[in-house]
Amino acid sequence: MTAFDPATAALDTVVEAGEGFLGPIPAGGTFRIVDLHGNQAVDTLFYDAADVDNRYSAFDTVREQGAVYLTTGSRLLSTRLDVLATITDDTCGRHDTLGGACAQESNVVRYGTHTRHQNACRETFLRYGAAAGIDARRLGHNINFFMNVPVTAAGGLTFVDGVSAPGKHVQVRAERDLLVLISNCPQVNNPCNGWNPTPVRLLGWWPV
Amino acid sequence: MSDVLVSHDIPAGAAWSVLVRAGRELRLTALGPGANCSTLLFTAGHPVDRLNVPDTLKAQMSATIRPPMVLMSDRGLALCSVTGSSLPWHDALCGHSADARRGLLSELRKHGRDVADIHGCVNFFAKVATSDDAAGTLAYQPNHASADDWVALRTEIDVLAVLSTAPHPLDPRQEAQPVRAEVWAAEPAGPDDPSRTFRVESERALLLSKEVFA
Ligand SMILES: [Zn+2]
């Protein structure tokens, strides 16, 4: 039996595509996201549970680790440079933290007016975050777990098919009491997920 | 180009902010080698709407800020068009330094804003490329900017610009340089404007700016 047996998990839930999740991860706890069907974009934000203004910062994280992709060993930093969490296991290989979340308005910019009223991640973040006081001012730029957004040395940026596959997972250890806010992306307009958003499973291990 | 409306030399390692009406040009000029200008942008008068670096980059398929890209907000609005620059690359991946944060916060508070309003900035005059290795390793390019290098932004809506001249956080020298900020009356953009014809996404953001403040 491994240390992380789903049968002993304190948290075990499935988030449907287009739905969200807000929940606590206590310091020292381990939190896993399982890409059940592969190539799903799991838009994820972490907040210091004691102060939601101390929130995950994509650019501070990128700069301090000296690299743009996240994987095992990446420390996820806050806007105050506190380590919120560390990626401790990653069977996918790399994850994006530059691409941000989809939104109803940015869908119009990227795909056209007909997408204006489609379900989008930014709105899901706001809907689920409201209970913790996470409003639009407190929405930083998220991690896109399982998403592949290559950046080139020449300054190009593209979205390509994901590098994930069914059953791949990523796992973080909370370095302080955290809130995790997830939008399981409903995007149907780009090829990263094969135009087919799918559910993910969330697992957590900590004393209850 | 007509007369300059405002000219302010931001000292080395200082911060400044300015409200710029739609249709102006905000021109930044490096006054020393290795200058950096960490810049936050907001829709003036809106409690929340602000520069969204990820949306700006992914909509225009670029990991750097350069002409004729438009700088987009959380609500998909074109805040500014980068109408020209003596440099082909301005960093938007690395965020600001702790020194810049102090200055930016000091200016933000004058506008009723606070830590929650700090967002991913553009570091004008700085270049940090990525490597094509598996990790996407960052490489800061020393001496990217020389004195007199410049960048010009045409405001597409009323904008609050908050600027810090603290060094880029990855600059090993950490020698702050002053930056001149000028506001000019700009020529109206025509249908063949490079920012409008650059990409269909850029044009849509410009059109949204017109609609939102109709
Ligand atoms: Zn999304």
How would you sum up this structure, described in words?
The complex is a heterodimer of chains A (208) and B (214). Chain A has 208 residues and is mainly beta. Chain A has helices at 58-65, 104-111, 121-129; strands spanning 11-15, 20-25, 30-35, 42-48, 51-55, 69-70, 75-77, 83-90, 95-96, 143-145, 168-174, 178-184, 200-205. A six-stranded antiparallel β-sheet of chain A has the order 1-13-3-11-8-7. Chain A is globular. The two termini of chain A are 20 Å apart. Chain B has one domain (6-212). Chain B is 17% helix and 31% strand. Chain B has helices at residues 53-59, 98-110, 194-197, 200-212, and strands at 4-10, 15-20, 24-30, 37-43, 70-72, 78-85, 122-124, 128-130, 138-140, 150-155, 159-164, 179-185. In chain B, a hairpin with a 7-residue loop joins strand 8 and strand 9 (138-140). The mean pLDDT of chain B is 96. The interface between A and B is large, with 44 and 46 residues. Zinc ion binds at residues 43, 101-102, 120-121, 185, 187 of chain A. Chain A: Residues 14-179 form the DUF1989 domain. Chain A: This is Urea amidolyase associated protein UAAP2. Chain A: Pfam families: DUF1989 (PF09347).
Question: How are the secondary structure elements laid out?
Answer:
The complex is a heterodimer of chains A (208) and B (214).
Chain A: E1 11-15, E2 20-25, E3 30-35, E4 42-48, E5 51-55, H1 58-65, E6 69-70, E7 75-77, E8 83-90, E9 95-96, H2 104-111, H3 121-129, E10 143-145, E11 168-174, E12 178-184, E13 200-205
Antiparallel strand pairs in A: 1-13, 2-12, 3-11, 3-13, 4-5, 4-10, 4-12, 6-9, 7-8, 8-11
Chain B: E1 4-10, E2 15-20, E3 24-30, E4 37-43, H1 53-59, E5 70-72, E6 78-85, H2 98-110, E7 122-124, E8 128-130, E9 138-140, E10 150-155, E11 159-164, E12 179-185, H3 194-197, H4 200-212
Antiparallel strand pairs in B: 1-12, 2-11, 3-10, 3-12, 4-7, 4-11, 5-6, 6-10, 8-9
Bound molecules: zinc ion.
InterPro entries (chain A): DUF1989 (IPR018959), UAAP2 (IPR017791)
Protein name (chain A): Urea amidolyase associated protein UAAP2
Domain DUF1989 (chain A): 14-179
